[in-house]
Design a protein that fits this description.
Largest sheet: 9 strands, mixed
Distance between the termini: 13 Å
Strand order of the largest sheet: 1-5-6-14-13-12-7-11-10
Pfam families: tRNA-synt_His
Shape: globular
Number of helices: 14
GO molecular function: glycosyltransferase activity; histidine-tRNA ligase activity
Protein name: ATP phosphoribosyltransferase regulatory subunit
Keywords: Glycosyltransferase, Transferase
Structural class: alpha+beta
Low-confidence stretches: 203-207
Amino acid sequence: MPNRSQIQARAAMMRLRFEAAGAHVVDPPLLQPAGTLLDLYGEDIRARAYVTTDALRGEQMMRPDFTVPVVQMHMRDGAEPARYTYSGEVFRRQELDPDRANEYVQVGYEVFDRVDPAAADAEVFSLFALQVRGLSLRAATGDIGILIAAVQGLKTTDRRMAALMRHLWKPRRFRALLDRFAGRTAEPVSRLALLANADPMGFDAPVIGKRSAAEISARIEALRADAEVGPISDSEMAGLDSLLAVRETMPFALEQLRDIAVDLPQISPALNRLEARIAALAARGVDVERLDFEASYGRTSMEYYDGFVFGFYAERRPDLPPIATGGRYDALTRKLGNGAEIPAVGGVLRPDLMLEIEEGTE
């Protein structure tokens, strides 16, 4: 196994390569305000981060990643366009998988540039491909923006679209909601009984759990209104099912998605962006004819990405997490920009895993 000094040396070398590409070195503090991360991810982040409390600064989290503090820094006082690189430790609790490291080094590269997003996507991916060259990794790509466009263009209620968007990064929950909204699965018996009750709020207590009676009453009325909404159409569901199943090399994936756009015309602008990205990748020397594209890729571990996503994996070492991951996170700049926004794309690499793979091939 590589030791700490080897990992730090490799991280420094990788960061120098990103500096040579025009990146400015940044080093966000190890302790990050918990409030921002909780606002972004809700209480779920507590299961993945180490939390502490400071008498003056309040609740803090040991840095779970670099992207959020880098975006905050850029939106506060960064120039345009901008490129950043960094290396350092991040901390993730691993109770569900104790074999995985809870402290490890990441090296990253982030691009903030509104002129040509497709070119920026290609720049980041090609630089990462150069960093891992020679490691026999499989590259996977996707585009969460296509699925977002499909959901936001459905002929259904805003409430249903919001529910689907809320669970977009939880595929099993998303599928369960989608099937229910399409009438493929029946409503739970307990819910039907609740809605059939003439007075479901027949109790005296002002609060149930952490919700007031008024909040629960409003929720019941919302469920009753939803029960009157017609199902998502068969043609839209067929389009969504086909979209989620797309797994091909990039050019063939685009061809399949163009066919799917007959049933889901709202995805056409996102497909135009995918087409521009394919051309930009090819211009950078990437063999797009052999580059995998999966329409569902990135939905389980890339919560703040909302467009292009990618990862590099060691197929001969399925026990290892991704060696590198990245993608586009335009929406995150809106959330953290106090009204401002800028297209942004970036990613991170794991030098410890790269060294481990190299040791295994010697």
